[in-house]
Amino acid sequence: MSDETKYYDDYPSEPIGGKNPYYRCSSCGRSAPEINGSIEGHLEDCPWRIQKKKELDIKRNKMGETRKQEFIDRYIVTFLATWTANNYSFACSHGRHEMLENPPVEDAEFLAQAAWKKCEELLK
Ligand SMILES: [Zn+2]
């Protein structure tokens, strides 16, 4: 379930009291039916809402970092394997096996970073 559609009821709550059977957020005072599990159901200046939004932003950034690292790792592996395969025949037929043992790792890393940057710009 995505964070956007998730039902959030982990805010501090208290009974509204009187004859009202419902609970309300202890931070902003909105009732549980008004909130209905949505972060936006809380008042904009609700401390719980502000804190929750912060946590979700941090989580989203971490997921972004993980995706970036996976992209770069896969790019480098694919790039180096392809480079080696493409140069294999040449190296063998020209007695230059040593070039296969020195693949362009730094270039692969640089190009992976550049490709990620470009993808991010285009896919925003
Ligand atoms: Zn609230």
* Total strand segments: 2
CA-based gyration radius: 26 Å
- Poorly predicted parts: none
| Associated small molecules | zinc ion
Spatial separation of the terminal alpha carbons: 22 Å
Determine the mean pLDDT: 95
Beta-strand portion reads: 5-15%
What percentage of residues falls in helices of 4 or more residues?
55-70%
Largest sheet: 2 strands, antiparallel
Large-scale geometry:
rod-shaped
Structural class: mainly alpha
The H/E string reads EEHHHH
Describe the structure.
With 124 residues, the protein is mainly alpha-helical. The chain has 2 domains: 1-45, no CATH class; 60-124. Helices cover 60% and strands 9% of the residues. The chain has a two-stranded antiparallel ribbon with strand order 1-2. Strand 1 and strand 2 (20-25) form a beta hairpin. Helix 2 packs across helix 4. It is rod-shaped, with a radius of gyration of 26 Å. The mean pLDDT is 95. Residues 11, 25, 27-28, 30, 42, 46, 48-49 line the site of zinc ion.
Ordered list of secondary-structure elements with their pairings:
Elements: E1 13-17, E2 20-25, H1 32-35, H2 47-93, H3 97-100, H4 105-123
Antiparallel strand pairs: 1-2
Helix pairs in contact: 2-4
The structure holds zinc ion.
Zinc ion binds next to helix 2.
